[in-house]
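Researcher: Good morning. I'm working through a list of sequences from a screen, and I'd like to move beyond sequence-only analysis. For each chain I'm collecting a predicted structure so we can compare shapes side by side. This is the next one on the list. No need for commentary yet; just the structure.
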Amino acid sequence: MHQRRQYERSQSPQFLPVIDRYSDQSIGMLADLSPGGLLIMVDEPISVHRVFQLQIKLPESVNGSGVLEFGAESVWVESSDQMGVCWVGLQIIDISDYYKSVVEELVEIWAEQEAAQQNMRLAV
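Model: Good morning. Structure tokens for this chain:
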């Protein structure tokens, strides 16, 4: 995967549908997230430099919100031999201060959950 990231990403503990707000259709499943971008898994490749208005419904409320909404641009696409899926890196290009705070809190929560799981594995 590409390593030119400005922010640390946190893995989503579950694949969450990433919805195109214009078509109300899922474009893929969230794999990880940062304040600057996200990685999604898709069945069909998405062209690079495509701009989306996206929504992700959260499994639980974060900072009073059950969703994330933002604009993003696809910056790279990589095919995978696993299960015939593609990985798409998207850069967040338009996000309100409120939703940015939700993303930052969510990334922190997921990082803590991931660290706790790793500690439990080491303790076994």
